Amino acid sequence: MRMLSANFAQDGLGKIILAYRPPQGQKEQHKQYYCYLCGCPMVLLSKELNRGPRFEHDIEWYPAEKLRKCSYYDGKDKGNEQLEKIREALRTLGSLTPVTHWHCVMCQCHYDGPKYCDQCHTGIFSIADAGIS
Q1: What does the alpha-carbon distance between residue 17 and residue 11 come to, in Å, rounded to a whole number?
Q2: pLDDT-derived band of residue 116, with 50, 70 and 90 as boundaries?
Q3: Distances (CA, A) of 92 to 83, 86, 121
Q4: What is the pTM of this model?
Q5: Domain coordinates of the chain in residue numbers?
Q6: Taking 80 as the threshold, does the pLDDT of residue 117 lie above it?
Q7: Is the pLDDT of residue 86 over 80?
Q8: For the chain, what is the HEC assignment?
Q9: Model confidence over 21-41: pLDDT tens digits?
Q10: Please, what is the end-to-end C-alpha distance for the chain in angstroms?
């Protein structure tokens, strides 16, 4: 289950707390934060991995069916979405044709077959020859 990050939450007294400006000197019993939409406990995360401070739902201790009703629930499975984009790109490619005609830029010869120039004894200077069909 994936929940989006939040920029603010409620503290134990019901006050709205901003992630980038958490209260200083707050009493220990009021350091718990809650989602203002679903009431789920939230955790304040500081800056890490190029992301600013934010609140995250504590999904281990709250029923999944209640979390799914929260507006911060991300119903999209990002992995499947990326996989579908890759599959769509592969469908548009069509079939690939292997290169069999080569031009050696070192000795200026043209040859067919594997990428290996018999005159230079290497294939490193060979490029696909577009002039031969």
Answers
A1: 7
A2: very high
A3: 15, 10, 38
A4: 0.51
A5: 8-67, 96-133
A6: yes
A7: yes
A8: CCECCECEEECCCCCEEECCECCCCCCHHHCCEECCCCCCEEEEECCECCECCEEEECHHHCCHHHHCCCCCECCCCHHHHHHHHHHHHHHHHCCCCCCCEEEECCCCCEEECCCCECCCCECCCEEECCCCC
A9: 877 765 544 578 999 998 899
A10: 54
